[in-house]
Amino acid sequence: MMRSYETFSTTADAGIRIRGRDFAELYGNAFRGMNVLLFGANLRSASGCAALPFHYRGDGPESVLVNFLSEVLFQVYQKGRRVAAAEIENADRRSLDAKLRLSPCRRTPRIEIKSVTYHNLRVIEGKGVLRAAIVFDV
């Protein structure tokens, strides 16, 4: 698995640049990158965490990314649960099926992400790698 993401900041936003060899890897790296923004790099294991099914069908990878990461934010800010892991079961250009491993949020997120945006979001494929940059409203 290619683990690849990096965070970046702008004046009123934060974001991540992600890449993956396929859609499962791309979506998984987006999840991990956002978790680093929220909680830092030292996260506990997801073993023993409750599983919540996540299913989404959209019109393209951009809508999959926005809706997937928005669900993660909903769990954190509305339900008080951290998504410790996302087990991707099926992923393609227009859909994602995953099990979200949930644990209680024991610490406050490092930053408050208000929403996942479509701002300049475009998944690009080249040389066998998918790339995107996602901006979060903070």
CATH superfamily, please?
Archease domain
The third-level CATH topology is: Archease, Possible Chaperone, Chain: A, domain 1
Q: How confident overall, as mean pLDDT?
A: 91
Q: Approximately what portion of the residues adopt beta-strand conformation? A: 35-45%
Instruction: Give a short account of the largest sheet.
Output: 5 strands, antiparallel
Put the structure in a nutshell:
About 25% of the residues lie in helices and about 40% in strands.
Q: What does this protein look like?
A:
The structure is a single chain. With 138 residues, the chain is of the alpha+beta class. The chain has a single domain (5-137), classed as 3-Layer(bab) Sandwich (Archease, Possible Chaperone, Chain: A, domain 1), CATH 3.55.10. 25% of the residues lie in helices and 41% in strands. The strands form 2 sheets. Strands 1, 2, 6, 7 and 8 form a 5-stranded antiparallel sheet that branches. β7 and β8 form a beta hairpin. α1 (23-39) runs parallel beside α2. The longest helix is centred in the N-terminal third of the chain and has 17 residues, at 23-39. The protein is globular, with a radius of gyration of 14 Å. The termini are far apart.
